[in-house]
TrEMBL record:
Cross-referenced SUPFAM superfamilies: Homeodomain-like (SSF46689), SIS domain (SSF53697)
Pfam families listed in its UniProt record: HTH_6
Gene Ontology terms for molecular function: carbohydrate derivative binding; DNA binding; DNA-binding transcription factor activity
Domain HTH rpiR-type residues, every copy: 30-106
GO biological process: carbohydrate derivative metabolic process
Gene3D superfamilies: Glucose-6-phosphate isomerase like protein, domain 1 (3.40.50.10490), Winged helix-like DNA-binding domain superfamily/Winged helix DNA-binding domain (1.10.10.10)
Domain of life: Bacteria
PANTHER family (alphabetical): GLUCOKINASE, RPIR-FAMILY TRANSCRIPTIONAL REGULATOR
Name of the protein: RpiR family transcriptional regulator
Length: 304
């Protein structure tokens, strides 16, 4: 699972001060641009090594020749050129110039930040801006909403780091959807539960897949598709190829600048998908919410 290891190498531990913040922001800026241009592509292992070297050597990116980058990544010089052209550049020099020019804004912004926690918050704001641009494609969100609303039951999967996102979606979805089945355990029990979902008429598995990815998650996605359940996948905006595990895919940016990743953008996606699902349930969602509100008031579930 080399793909799943890509994000964790971007952390810069124990480097206090403005210089460290600037370095981290440079890496994030290059990472964001590379993943944006690689969207929808399946990068080879050699191309992922090149991308990783560009990120790790952000300070010298304006001075590295294609041959020097090839040696760092342990690939051939033509591989570097092919990588640049696959991302839409005319060649390596154009890619180097473009990536370097995008760092000046990041460097200026970092000077106003006092510590790494402010830098992390700034990175999350940038992630939300990128998410806002992605949400311009309403048809993609609408297709997710339709698939989630029409699946009875609806399976929701999230293991380890992704379990919180899956639980959050399931908690609110169960207020409007008649049958939501949350899968947060590992091993073959997921296959048993997915078979039960299929036998009961379920058509869709909504899966959250944030790094690092457990083998059980991949196996569950593969098994769901084997038995005819469509996979709607929410994953990080990394350079891995997720298309082999999904029928619908949403890739959202996460912040990797602190010891543990943070998930502001994926949390927003949870609410977006809930709204899109409700749109396709029409009056049914409203009726169930009204009934739930009446019941909770009667039972005095909430204070105030």
């Amino acid at each position: 699972m080399a793909d799943s290891e890509f994000n964790k190498d971007l952390n810069i531990p124990d480097m206090p001060g403005v210089t460290a913040i600037s370095t981290q922001n440079e890496r994030q800026a290059i990472y964001a641009e590379l993943e944006r241009r690689a969207q929808g592509q399946r990068l080879t292992p050699a191309q992922r090594r090149i991308a990783q070297c560009l990120i790790e050597n952000s300070n010298e990116i304006g001075f590295l020749s294609s041959l020097e980058l090839a040696k760092l990544a342990n690939v051939s010089q033509p591989s570097v050129t092919r990588f640049a052209t696959s991302l839409g550049f005319g060649g390596y020099l154009e890619m180097r110039r473009h990536l370097r020019s995008g760092l000046s804004v990041t460097e200026a912004r970092s000077e106003t930040l006092a510590n790494r926690y402010q830098a992390a918050a700034q990175a999350e704001m940038h992630n939300l801006e990128e998410l806002g641009k992605m949400l311009a494609d309403e048809s993609l969100i609408d297709s997710f909403g339709e698939a989630l609303a029409s699946s009875r039951p609806l399976a929701v999967l999230g293991l380890r780091a992704s379990s919180g996102l899956a639980a959050q979606f399931s908690y609110f979805a169960s207020k409007v959807h008649p049958d939501v089945r949350l899968l947060t355990g590992g091993g073959s029990i997921n296959e048993d539960l997915l078979e039960q979902v299929k036998a009961a008429g379920g058509k869709t598995l909504l899966a959250f897949m944030m790094p690092l990815y457990p083998r059980e998650t991949v196996r569950a996605l593969e098994f769901a598709r084997e038995i005819g359940i469509s996979v709607a996948l929410v994953a990080d905006a990394g350079l891995a190829d997720y298309s082999r595990w999904s029928d619908r895919l949403l890739q959202v940016p996460i912040n990797t600048s602190l010891v543990f990743d943070s998930y502001s953008a994926p949390a927003v996606i949870v609410s977006v998908l809930l709204d899109a699902m409700c749109n396709h349930m029409k009056n049914e969602a409203e009726r169930r919410l009204d009934h739930l509100d009446h019941s909770s008031r009667k039972r005095k579930v909430f204070t105030g």
